[in-house]
Amino acid sequence: MPDPFAGTLHRLDKGRVARSAVADDVRQVALYYGASWCGPCRAFVPELIAAYPRLRAMGTEVIFVSDDRSCAAALDYARASRMPWLLLPCDAHRRRALRALGGTALPGLVVVDRDGRQRATSWRADDDSAPRGTLRWLLDRPPGSGRPAAGAGT
User: pTM here?
Assistant: First the structure.
């Protein structure tokens, strides 16, 4: 399984791309799968942005894994949405590896703990995605508590 905690990531700082990494206090990562062309993604991002301060206070970081065709489109989407979380750099190998954790429907949300175990996913058996339910699951459970939830939010 790919390690979303490893390697260099990016974060927007006043609209500019800055190198970053997952902070030491982070106990789990929520991988947000989305794309600029995806209407449901654009509708979900404001909810995730509103929840982000609470998620960080709970020890959860968010990493954006783009499904855009170009790095420029992914970055434009992150800037236009004002994503406050980490961004996966333009690295096709890492993107494919992390993308393999999820389904095909967007938006998606997959939660992985520090040991690399998947704790929750928004993708259901029919490959549809319910990220709002997974976000509620995240907000209701501190990292490391409760049962691992494959299909959380379905």
Answer: 0.88
